[in-house]
Amino acid sequence: MRYLIIGAGAVGGAIGGRLAQAGHDVVLVARGKQYEALRDHGLRLVTPGGPHIHRLPVVAGPGELGELSPDDVLVLAVKTQDSVAALEAWAGRPVAGGGTAAERLPLVCAQNGVESERLALRLFRRVYGMCVWLPATFVEPGVVSAAGTPLTGILHIGRYPGGTDETAHRISADLEKSFFEAPVVPDVMRWKYAKLLGNLANAIEAVSGVITSEEGLTLHGRARAEGEAVLAAAGIAFASKEEEKESRGDKIRFEPFDGSERSGGSSWQSLSRATGTIESDYLNGEMGLLGRLHGVPTPVNDALQSVANRFAREGRPAGSMTIRDLVAEADAATR
Question: Is the full-model pTM beyond 0.70?
Fold first, then answer.
């Protein structure tokens, strides 16, 4: 199987780099400065075991690959706000022997949130969800840090909307030879909704920094409580905290092997890189959507979504709002 990593940033770079290190065929798909750095210097993946430079095929889009192979696996690792463009770009690509990528190839959504699977299923016949627990950072163009040890990450995988198949097990087997644990589960979205509840903190971290204070923890608790109420009203199941804890165990520890402090997660990285977009519409905004569909107020998540989007739109620095000011905005929204 050849893995086409669509979006070779932090998560995509870590997955692609580890797969390549284990001897699997990998093609990285990137754009802009990341594409140029990967093309000219390779992917530098920095891990607790040391840095590894992977000289892999790199393309800016599907046109550079020509006809795809029936053994290709598409791994969608862009932020959800970029999913539609990526899906449309790859769906119609011809596959050797006939048919298109959308008709014949498996597509794995290795992303936060729960919307990309729905978007993909409009075009692709074989969609897989992946719940990504993977501490990775985009350091600079061409350089990704993956600080998890002894495993780089835990990647639950399954068919969308549900079930398992031989392809899921083959992908899992490749990942488990590549410093990952990759449980094949028939209810992958239950794990992704659980991860979504945790990701409601992303906006807090993005605008106010890594959450260490009681004020920040309490604010995330309020956002999570809204989320749990929304999911209950919608009849959507999610893995419990106990299940998540048991699944992770001591398999992933974060070790700042280079002496640096822990950086923020994916939303924080979007602001720090001044990308102009942030994924809050598909995290806190997902709860707002479900809340409005099912009559459950979500003022805290609405406020967090609004502030995060304002930061992205205005190019404000990550972590530049005090947690006290952010709590005040959430409080104002609940009145």
Answer: yes
